[in-house]
Design brief:
The chain is α+β, with helices and mostly antiparallel strands. The protein is built from 1 helix and 10 strands, in the order αββββββββββ.
Amino acid sequence: MRLIIFILFLMYFGQTFAQSAFYFSHIQPYSNEPKDLVEHENGYLVVGYNSLGGPEGNGFLMMLDKNGAILWEKIEEAPEPDKYEMYTAGIFHNGYFYVGGFRWINNQRRNLLLKVNPISGNIIWKKVFGELPVLGGDNHIQDIYPNEDGLLIAASGFD
């Protein structure tokens, strides 16, 4: 009889504790979401997005060595007033990483390109480009490819 009561106790109260543990371990103040992986002679660059759990988010960069150990990690805070920036694609070219993505500026998405030092992770420059806003799923930077004139930036969209 005690065994049956103990089993019923675990069935009832076990769910309570399990749900709290699940909530505690999976609901966190922020999370990093990878969008692209760029191969480099010394390792890999992960580019993506750092969610703050609301309407704000930051760009995310992480350099890994060939064995997967983290060499450096950067969360690039998005500027005011919109505070939203996401990196979606990257390439290693002429000694630097070039990372593409978008930023919200005055409630409109704008394409963004960064030049990143592969050793330190420092951002050398950021450039917002394009006259038209990037709508819902349109014209997001999906790939970057070098050519003889510089970089070819490929975007995709749908209607």
